[in-house]
Amino acid sequence: MTSLGIDIDPAVDASVSATLAVVEDRLRHNVASADPLVAEAARHLMDAGGKRFRPLIVALGAQFGDPSRAEIVPAALVVELTHLATLYHDDVMDEAAVRRGAPSANARWGNSVAILVGDYLFARAADIAATLGTEAVRLQAQTFSRLVHGQIAETVGPRGSDAIEHYLHVIAEKTASLIATSARFGGLFSGATPEHVEALAGYGETIGIAFQLSDDLLDIASESVQSGKTPGTDLREGVPTLPVLYALADDDADASAVRLRELLASGPLVDDALHAEALGLLRESRAMKRARETVRTYAEDARARLVPLPDGSPRRAMESLCDFIADRTS
């Protein structure tokens, strides 16, 4: 937790950190395979690191029950293995060459191996979910359905619907759904009350949208590799994230806004000079300011979802996470 720059109660921090340490150790065991190629490819993204945001949300949600329950670590493994599996599939869909600063699995082993390794990780997640009972299996299946629908929606595009609404829908399905399940799992398997479990799931859904949007903004705003990739990667690849969609929808007649719309409407900005110009204009644009306000709105909505939960250190930790996500792109 402290690595995220969040100031929380030491006891909560110690509990969450202990859970995450066990999860990290168990992940290595659970991506193992009798087939050396499968084992190597399955370890590939895990070894590249990552925020482990979903296990973090499980561990935080568990603070509203008994966080020492044996089911908490398996629940965190289910969501992280599911997340890792989606990354293998996403990279094939996006024809990505790099993930987390390393060559993507599809670039290294080919699309077929990457898809099958993703399937293997889904299977490992389902196997662990089965040890938690039918409710866990049902929730994972429902979440998987949302993930697939989100990927399909992203693939086919808006199809005449509002591009911004479509983009937010894709994020809700592809990202927020699994983070909502992470929060639900934390509450459910720690023995939290049904009312608290529902509040946690609502928090997870909205903080999940804020989290993904803030990542997209970091790709534009960051001068470093804070976002896990070279700044402006989405622009170079022609990926229409929220600031870009806001800029394209803007009717501002200012010369810089008009020029920005021209650049963005031209598609992927592979030319270094045009890419640098667009990135600079976007960073200073009204659209970027509006996108930051949208992140903050979702973060504040997530905070409001915590109201049914008891006041105390766990709730304050989750509120601090809202602040962190809202502020990280300022």
Distance between the termini: 20 Å
Structural class call reads: mainly alpha
Pattern of helices and strands: HHHHEEHHHHHHHHHHH
Mean of pLDDT: 90
Helical residues, percent:
over 70%
Based on CA atoms alone, the radius of gyration comes out at 20 Å
What is the number of helices? Answer: 15
Strand content: under 5%
Q: Could you list the spans in which at least 5 consecutive residues all have pLDDT below 50?
A: none
State the shape.
Answer: globular
Strand arrangement across the biggest beta sheet: 1-2
Count all strands and give the number.
Answer: 2
* Largest sheet geometry: 2 strands, antiparallel
Question: How is this structure best described in words?
Answer:
The protein has 15 helices and two strands. It is an all-alpha fold and about 325 residues long. It has a two-stranded antiparallel ribbon with strand order 1-2. β1 (about 100) and β2 (about 100-105) form a beta hairpin.
Structural topology:
Layout: H1 10-30, H2 36-47, H3 53-61, H4 72-94, E1 98-99, E2 102-103, H5 105-109, H6 111-132, H7 134-156, H8 163-190, H9 194-221, H10 233-237, H11 242-249, H12 255-265, H13 272-283, H14 286-305, H15 313-327
Throw out a few tags for this protein.
two-stranded antiparallel sheet; 1% strand; single chain; 330 residues
